[in-house]
Structures are given as C-alpha cells and as structure tokens.
Amino acid sequence: MTSTILKPVCFGLAAITLMACNPILRTHGYVPTEDKPQAVNPETDTKASVLARLGNPSVKSTFDEDIAEDTWFYMNSVRQRYAYLRPQIEERSITAITFDEDGQVTEVAEYGIEDGQYVNYVNRETPTRGRELSVLEQIFGTIGRLPTDRIGGNQDIPGGAGGPGG
Fold first, then answer.
1. Mean pLDDT of all residues in the chain?
2. Residues 57/6, Cβ–Cβ less than 8 Å
3. What pLDDT does 86 receive?
4. Taking the domains of the chain in order of start, what are their residue ranges?
5. Which CA distances in Å does 151 have to 67, 125, 139, 145, 165?
6. Residue 66: is its pLDDT beyond 60?
7. DSSP category for residue 70
8. Is 67 exposed, middle or buried (0-12, 13-18, 19+ CB in 10 A)?
C-alpha cells in the first residue's frame, strides 16, 4: 500500500526537481536585425545610414552638450534564471557609436560584460519632518477639515464639477 503512494510522490518530486534545473533565458535591450551595430564603418557611415540600418539606439548621450561629438549606444543583454534564484546576466554587449558635428561616424567601440563595474548603492533614507500617521489617523484625520464652500458648488475648478456649460 505504501509503495503505491510512494512511487507517484517520488516521481512528482523528481519531475519538479528537473524542471527547476531548466534555465529561463531572457533577452533585454536592442535586438539586432541582419546588420549588427559592430558592422558600422567609421569611414563611410553617417547618422542617417546608421539610423536606417540599425534603427533607434537604446540610449543617446546627454552629457556635455557643448562638445560637438554625439554618441549612440546600442545595448543588449541576456539574463539566465533558475527557478527561484536571482537572475544572472549571462551575456552583455554595448556598442558605442560616436559621431562628429557633421554626423560622420568617428569611432565604434564595443564593450562586454567583462568591461562592466559593480556600483555600490547607499541605502540611506532622507529624514522627513513631522511624525508618521497611523492608518486610522490618515482615514479620519480629514473629517471636519474639508472646506464647505467647495463642496457641491458649481465652480470652474480643475477636476471638479462645472465648466463652461455649468
């Protein structure tokens, strides 16, 4: 009797264990078509030709507007996830295409996952003035504080009743 119950339970646990070992891959960012960003030629390509071949970049540079150069970034990453574990980046590709003031490609640089650096974030909170209110204080705290001249009136206020037709 116990072996008839034990076999399906063991089979079910084995199936769940095997499913947990199967990774889920997800691609994020720019997905190249036939032309890859690395195929851009600094001697012949311009902003118009890069845009026509590759489409819009993932990010355009926004720093130092006084500098005549403009940089477009095409970013792609593949994340791998096992069951309940934290996802891990398996592959990352960043292609930076730099243009001069005339729109001509001056440089094509490629960066991979090995070029990345970890950034330590600071988990501090900004203190606020006052005190924290309980749920009941938040719910019942406005009773008696609503302005009576605005309730039920026919006024032209944003989001309120009224309007040009009354």
1. 76
2. no
3. 81
4. 21-115
5. 56, 38, 19, 12, 19
6. no
7. E
8. exposed
Q: Which two tokens stand for residue 101?
A: 């003031």
CA 136 to CA 143: how far, in whole Å? 12
Spell out a b/e string for 51-60, using b for 16 or more CB atoms within 10 Å of the CB, else e. eeebeebeee
Q: Is 95 helix (H, G, I), strand (E, B) or coil?
A: strand
Residue-wise pLDDT tens digits, 78-108: 888 877 778 888 888 888 888 888 889 998 8
Q: What per-residue confidence (pLDDT) applies to 80?
A: 85
pTM of the model: 0.55
Decide if 105 contacts 95 (C-beta within 8 A).
Answer: no
Beta bridge partners, 109, equal 96
| 3 state DSSP class of 136 | helix
